[in-house]
Amino acid sequence: MTQPDLFGESFARAGVAILRGFALTDDIALVAAIDAIVAEAPFRHMMVPGGGRMSVAMTNAGIGWVADTRGYRYDRADPLSGQLWPDMPPIFVDLAHRAAREAGFDFSPDGCLINRYEPGAKMGLHQDINEGDYSAPIVSVSLGLPATFQFGGLKRGDPVEKITLHHGDVVVWGGPARKSFHGVLTLKAGHHAIGGHRYNLTFRKVL
Ligand code: SIN
Ligand code: FE2
């Protein structure tokens, strides 16, 4: 795997690349693509098996990640509408492919989870382990308000690094880091040209 010279905040771990500003030139097109997806498949707060409601609002393109009180799964259909999730727009696939290549991976995503964080929303430490293909990395794009990303190890109790992710930053993790625990601390209120929230696009190879 190539190690791009793009690590920020002295964060260096095999299989992880932080590509600062990688999505900046596409930001307006990405937000327009999110808006088009949301017009078909609105953001919603999913329930989790414990019975809680996620503070992060979600929708999907391509093969969709779904949580409910029975568990977590991938589904081609949106349970709210019974219709297929919207297709992944070409700009999503292209950006994820280019970012992964920068980090040394050949990646063709088939699913994108779209997260919207309003101030106060957070995501607890978890692993992305509902996918069928762990040889593919995760590509994660940040837009809007900055957030503190927590990146840990392969065990829940491993130490975590805190990394501030800004509008346009892309994080890629794969190979030995593919099943790393990660999460997002409570989003602070603020102002950003795209609105008072943060979007995160998480690209996966599900099948
Ligand atoms: C996720 O793990 O699905 C989201 C990560 C993020 O919002 O940066
Ligand atoms: Fe995740």
Can you put this structure into words, describing what you see?
- By secondary structure, the chain is of the alpha+beta class.
- The protein has a single domain (16-204), classed as Sandwich (Jelly Rolls), CATH 2.60.120.
- The chain has helices at residues 27-40, 90-102, and strands at residues 16-19, 57-62, 64-68, 71-75, 111-117, 123-126, 138-144, 147-151, 161-165, 170-173, 182-184, 198-204.
- Strands 1-10-7-12-5-2 form a six-stranded antiparallel beta sheet, covered by helices on one side.
- The longest helix is centred in the N-terminal third of the chain and has 14 residues, at 27-40.
- The chain is globular, with a radius of gyration of 16 Å.
- Fe (ii) ion (FE2) binds at residues 126, 128, 182, 202.
In short:
This protein is α+β, with helices and mostly antiparallel strands. The chain has helices spanning 27-40, 90-102; strands at 16-19, 57-62, 64-68, 71-75, 111-117, 123-126, 138-144, 147-151, 161-165, 170-173, 182-184, 198-204.
CATH class category name: Mainly Beta
Form type: globular
- CATH topology heading: Jelly Rolls
- Radius of gyration equals 16 Å
The domain tally reads 1
Strand % is 25-35%
Low-confidence stretches: 1-8
Going across the major beta sheet, what is the strand order?
A: 1-10-7-12-5-2
> What would you say the CATH architecture is?
Sandwich
Number of helices: 2
Q: List the helices and strands in order.
A: EHEEEHEEEEEEEE
Strand element count: 12
